[in-house]
């Protein structure tokens, strides 16, 4: 996720630090968010001066050392996590407009940028980058010099009312030294209040070295800062207020949003990860527009088989996808671990669609498997969280997840975003092939749109599961059972516990119990059971309830994840955690969350570092 810093200071403060120092320090603090390029713009001597560079912050600093910026008291700084347009110098922020008099930085995704761009191009505006941000900058420039008559705040208000999507925008203009104007919708922005200086940041890390007084801005608000003042209005132009608070975290906790670990923060990022992955991918009629796919729709419509290639958690996302895509598209879907696929002479051809799933886009096993499939003539599509990484670069098409950088080794938010992306892919294929009516696709998208608030509901009740986890810190083995889409959820629950709590954990298909695993059940053996909706597929619910009874009869301590309103399971369970109602195929997006919380809390209770578990790397770049 991009990092954003803004600064307006006075000369009395500049003895201590000028704008550039504040911006670079803020960007350094925001590095934890992950980025692929960085840039700054300052206002000085009646002009905008900007430097930007792909790669790490040090590249930008080297560039500034070679071509120094003039002293300045006003500026904006940005670290970019690429979404529209790959990571390059050109696509790095800030973007200039109004003949270079205005600079803008942006976090988020502007959904309607293509149509705005088309209008601006027709009016003669030229663009230098592939970004949606440059379009927003050009729009702001146009508003500034036409309807807003030189009022930067008014221009921002006019511009944001034409934008759709999620964005935080910061702008400076050469005619307004000492002023930074910012706007936010569905994307974070915090104001920092200093003495004779004010700050803006994606989060408080952006200014934590300079002030502890902060103001949380509300949805659809515009803030204008000068060294001595700040004023907030809504997108409707009416005066508005933010919520002032004092930052009592140290810098390290601020990076984690106040959570004790990145993993816990990332678990809490999941409503946004799902919402951002859905953003901009369908229109109001429910028609999917996956423009980034780059495979001829006619060829996609003709595929006869899908093979999902992935490792670890990403492979479990693929297993969830199998249920959904086969159900919606009636195309056979095979899910293979990348390292197994490559060495068994698999049968793929030009009508096979290879869907690789990788958070990092750098997993060597998956990369090699994709290369092999390409050599066999298959079409390759990458579902990936890291823009510009190797696997999407080498694939014919890409569908990016927008979970933002995942720092903790154990994957959480990337998993939910991957599942969301596979649903979008499945619905898109169903649309192309005519397997579902448009009304059905629209209904499923509407259900998906409700998922972020349902995840939030689970997060708001995380204490229920945390108490259970702490009480089980001495467990030596935990089993996980599920059927249908609950099966990969069970596997993922077990993997999380193994990875970070170093506890023996196994996930099983509940129907497989009697074929062997039931022999493991002994007095007090904890068994998590992911129970499908009682409203769902015939007999699935009752089959799983029977499985609970079977293990309980043999002494198991049954811990159940069930759907709200499922009162029947109560009498068979020692513990029940209810997740909100949702269609069965979408259930993994909810049922996984309590299992992540459980593993994270149990490992924390054991005193382990949940972000950096022993023996594991975030990205496995060797075979
Ligand atoms: O970056 P990738 O998604 O390709 O990584 C695949 C696995 O290495 C990864 O999911 C791993 O299993 C995680 N540590 C799971 O939490």
Structure commentary:
The protein is built from 21 helices and 24 strands. The chain has 623 residues and is an alpha/beta fold. Helix 19 (486-501) links the parallel strand 20 (477-482) and strand 21. The longest helix has 21 residues, at 413-433. The radius of gyration is 25 Å and the shape is globular. The model has no long low-confidence stretch (mean pLDDT 93). It binds 5-amino-5-deoxy-1-O-phosphono-D-mannitol. 5-amino-5-deoxy-1-O-phosphono-D-mannitol is lined by residues 311-314, 358-360, 363, 366, 409-411, 499, 616, 619-620.
Q: Would you tell me the structural class of the helices and strands?
A: alpha/beta
Ligand roster:
5-amino-5-deoxy-1-O-phosphono-D-mannitol
CATH architecture of the largest domain: 4-Layer Sandwich
Summed up, the helix count is 21
Give me a quick take on this structure:
The chain is α/β, with parallel strands linked by helices. It is 36% helix and 23% strand.
Name the descriptors.
single chain, 623 residues, alpha/beta, Glutamine Phosphoribosylpyrophosphate, subunit 1, domain 1, Rossmann fold, 3 domains, 8-stranded antiparallel β-sheet, 6-stranded antiparallel β-sheet, 21 helices, 23% strand, globular, binds 5-amino-5-deoxy-1-O-phosphono-D-mannitol
